[in-house]
Amino acid sequence: MFFTNQSKNRGLNKKMFVFMSIILLVGLSLATGALAGGGGMTLKVHTQILEAGGAPKSGPCPQPRNTKSAPASLAKASIPAGANAETGKKIFQKSAKPMACKMCHGAIGEGNGKLGMVLTPRPRNFTCADTMKRVSPGQMFWIIKNGSKGTGMVAHGKTLSDKQIWDVVKYIDTQFVTR
């Protein structure tokens, strides 16, 4: 029934196939990293440290990474004037595929989303000035588009247009980042 030829189920089946493929790829990535002696992305169950009020603790600050640098011309790029933070907010909080950015980065960008709590390294904490002063808007664009090897950050270049990625960068930069 999963792969029926009924036209009304075709769209749902395609989405389910893509989602299951992503889950399989993430699982294989985790297994490969574990078998290779932990050199890749590893999954650990962290004890969730709760702060007063029951909010998950923010991600570490600063956060070293070995992410590939964007090409020099892009690394120096500023956020385009046409980028829209409101559209970026909708993508970050809700509509990014395969899942919203907040699932890993947290609703307020502290790297403490529900899924992010089990990733090593933890997702980027956008509120950490010591980290973000070294991450230009162009570098953020590059990472969102291409992913970051050795982390849980997947490439969104096939699911988001360049305009949508810049919208997300503008939202992150205006809402969470202190430079």
What's the SSE blueprint?
Elements: H1 7-35, E1 42-43, H2 72-75, H3 85-95, H4 102-105, E2 119-120, H5 129-132, H6 137-146, H7 162-175
Antiparallel strand pairs: 1-2
What key attributes describe this structure?
two-stranded antiparallel ribbon; mainly alpha; Cytochrome Bc1 Complex, Chain D, domain 2; 179 residues
Written description of the protein model:
The protein has 179 residues and is mainly α. It has 2 domains: 1-40; 44-175, Orthogonal Bundle (Cytochrome Bc1 Complex, Chain D, domain 2). Helix content is 42%, strand content 2%. The chain contains 7 helices and 2 strands. It has helices at residues 7-35, 72-75, 85-95, 102-105, 129-132, 137-146, 162-175; strands spanning 42-43, 119-120. Helix 3 (85-95) crosses helix 7. Mean pLDDT is 79; it is low at 28-54.
Number of domains: 2
Spatial gap, N to C terminus:
52 Å
Give the H and E element order: HEHHHEHHH
What is the correct CATH architecture of the largest domain? Answer: Orthogonal Bundle
* Beta-strand proportion: under 5%
Described by the principal axes of the CA atoms, the overall outline is: globular
Oligomer: single chain
Radius of gyration: 17 Å
Strand segment tally: 2
Low-pLDDT regions? 28-54
How would you sum up this structure in a few lines?
The protein has 179 residues and is mainly alpha-helical. The chain has helices at residues 7-35, 72-75, 85-95, 102-105, 129-132, 137-146, 162-175, and strands at residues 42-43, 119-120.
